[in-house]
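Anyone able to model this chain together with zinc ion?
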Amino acid sequence: MKLDPITVVEVGPRDGLQYESVFFPTQDKIALINSLSQTGLKRIEVTSFVHPKVIPHLKDAMEVLRGMDKAPGVIYSALVPNLKGCQRALETPVDELALFVSASQTHNQKNVGMSIEDSLSGFADIAREALTAGKSLRGYVITAFGCPYEGAIALARVEQITEAYAELGVREVSLGDTTGMANPRRVSEVFEQLGREHRGIPLAAHFHNSRGLGLANAYAAYQTGCRVFDSSVGGLGGCPTAVGAMGNIPTEDLVNLMEEMGVSTGLDFTKLMESVQLVQRVLGGELASYTCKQGRPNWGAVQPKI
Ligand code: ZN
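re: yes, here you go
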C-alpha cells in the first residue's frame, strides 16, 4: 500500500538555537541553513524577530537572513512577535512569517504579557503588512496539548485560534506541544477531532521530546491524518546542562521513522547527516538524536517489503 508522503518543516535554526546553552555564531548559523537547504527540505524556519533582550541567541536575525543563500523551491520563514518585528523581517529576503499564540491564557500572559484575544487582534496589522508584501503566514498554537500552568487545554480553544488564524489569511497552523506534555492517545484525539485540515487550513504537528514521547506522538499524528511535521536537526533546543536533551524531535529521527515505514519525506539522509555533523562540530558534546549515533538500519541486499 502506498502511504501518503509528509512535509518536514525544519525549525532547528530558530526553535532549536534559541534555547541552546551557547550562542551559535552567525556564520555557523548561515552555514547550517545553507547545508539544510541541500537536504531536500522545502521549508526552513531560520530565525526569530523576538526582541534580542528576550532571545539573545537570535539577535543576528537580519544578518542571517541577508547572509544565507536561498535555494530555489525552499520557503524560508521567521518568527515575528509583533508589528515591529514584522517590519524588520520585511527588510530581509524572508518568504514567510510565523505568528504564535498560546492556547493557555496563563501561558500567553507569561510568555508575551497579554491575553490570547489581545495577541490575536495584534496580528491583524502584521498579517496585512505581510500579505501586502507578498509573504505567506504560518500560525503556531503553542501549549496546544497541555499547559504547565493550566493543565488540559480545551480543544475548542485550539479550534477558535485556528479559525482566527484562518480569518487573518494564515495558510497553515502548527499545533505545538511546547513543554512535552502530549501523549499518543491525546494526539490522536486532537487530530481525529480537528482533522488533517480545520476549516480549510492544514494542521501541522510540532512535538518536543521533553519526556521522550516525541516520535510516538508523531506516529500517532500521522495515523490520524497529519501530514506536516516540525522537527529540529540534531534535536536542537536543549537545556544548559545537556546538549539537545529537551529539543524538538530530531529531524533525522523523524525521517528514519517515516522512511522505515515507507512514508516518503523527500529528504536525503546522507546530506541531512552533514547538517547534523555541522551542529555537532559547533556545539561539541553529544546530540540527543538516535540516528546521529546509530545511523539508519542496514538491510543489506534484502529490503523489507512495505
Ligand atoms: Zn517548539
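The chain has one domain: 7-294.
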